[in-house]
Amino acid sequence: MATLTQSPARTGPRSPARSSGAPPALRHLGPNWYAAVMGTAIVANAGATLPLRSAGLRGAYVAVWALSGVLLLVLLAARTVHWARHADQARRHLLDPAVAPFYGCLAMALLAVGGGTLAVGSDVLGERAAVAADAVLWCAGTATGLAAAAAVPYLMVARHRIEAGTASPVWLLPLVAPMVSAALGPALVPHLPAGQWQEAMVLACYALFGMSLLATLLVLPLVLARLIHHGPLPLALTPTLFLVLGPLGQSTTAVNNLADAAPGAVGAGYARAMSGFALLYGVPVMGFALLWLALATALVVRAFRRGMTFSMTWWGFTFPVGTCVTGAAGLARHTGLTAFTWLAVGLFAVLVAAWLVAGVRTALGLARGRLLMPPPATPAPAPAPASAPAPASAPLSGPRPARP
To answer: What percent of the chain clears pLDDT 90, i.e. is strictly above it?
Structure first.
């Protein structure tokens, strides 16, 4: 879900790559690359929720799901090599406030591929194997997401040096991971033993929903305040504005999926309440998601006009839009309104177009060796002449430049 561009670490000079036989390019492989897995898996997951039914479409969803699984395995292997051979750089990533939030992408990649395994992968693996694979990936993704949701904010408070006015939509990544668990967990409820197991799963997903929602409500005002007081994001980071759609669309998906799983898992009264909550929460949040989509699109168009070029941040156009597809499809199921169905289909068309563009540009960038290049080094300032007198005092910071 985004770059994305990795800023140089702030914890010391860069160490040279070790001559251990590992591919040098892996030194600069950051956790942001899991966004490509998420953006691919959501195409299959979102397509499976649409009312469009045909053997050709189903086969395409299965193929995209299989591709997301292959990408996940390749990236897990590459990141394992990265940690084993370039541990110093991996630690820099954790200590860099521009990179650390992307560790939430690992959790969401595991969850998205697991959800696709149960939604469409059962056509290939069979239901029993698909349920087992989804259960393993859901547990691993949920544990990883909870760790990221706690560890990244801790690092931001205790270790990172964050300047005022630098709030970023990227901060939402570790916080939205538990919401993905809440949205995909209900699919496992029918496969659990009746009674305590099913009820515990439903309520656990509601707890995951709550922790992600409240954390998002704390961070989102910071992002909006940064935009209002400091102007648009840098061109390369403008696509990350779409990340705000992630918790909005995913929370709408979660409440609708939980309403589907509630009958038989919880008492009839609670099930009716959950069904009502799915509409009372989902419809207003989807309305706000569409408002944010309009704002983010306008700022992206502005960035294009000012020369924005491709970077890995473009994967931010995929997964967040996909969550809005699944959210709109869930509202269509519970209301029966054709308007929500058409909204889901229209957003799915946007998702597919964004996925194709990001995928092709990523493949070309890898083939040309550009995407794994080290970030450009910042030139050191020239030393002052020895004869120049030192100033008696210097201000701590200069005046802020005027916003263009």
So the answer is: 75
Structure tokens at 78: 């590459």
Angstrom distance (rounded) from CA 66 to CA 63: 5
In order of 25, 55, 192, 294, the CA distances from 315 in angstroms are 20, 28, 34, 18
Question: How far apart, in whole angstroms, are the C-alpha atoms of residue 199 and residue 138?
Answer: 17
Q: What is the CA radius of gyration of the chain?
A: 22
DSSP tag of 265: T
Confidence of residue 392 (pLDDT cuts 50, 70, 90): very low
Structure tokens at 48: 């499976």
Nearest to 132 by CA among 121, 142, 147, 143: 121
Query: What does the angle CA 278 – CA 329 – CA 341 come to, to the nearest 5 degrees?
Result: 120
In 3-state terms, what secondary structure has residue 266?
Answer: strand
The residues that bridge with 270 in the sheet, in sequence order, are: none
How far is Cα 220 from Cα 215, in angstroms, rounded to an integer? 9
Query: If DSSP states are collapsed to H, E and C, what string results for 147-161?
Result: HHHHHHHHHHHHCCC
* Range 194-198 contact pairs with CB under 8 angstroms and sequence separation of 24 or more: 194/264, 198/261, 198/264, 198/265
Question: Which residue in 297, 208, 200 sits closest to 251, CA to CA?
Answer: 208
Say yes or no to pLDDT of 17 above 70: no
Query: At how many degrees (to 10) do helices 245-261 and 319-335 cross?
Result: 40
> Average pLDDT, whole number, for the chain?
88
Sign of CA dihedral 219, 224, 227, 229: negative
Name the pTM for this structure: 0.86
Q: Are 344 and 50 in contact (CB under 8 A)?
A: yes
SS3 384: coil
Give the number of other Cβ atoms within 10 Å of residue 77's Cβ: 10
- Kindly state the helix (H) or strand (E) to which residue 8 belongs, with its residue range: none
Q: Is the pLDDT of residue 34 over 50?
A: yes
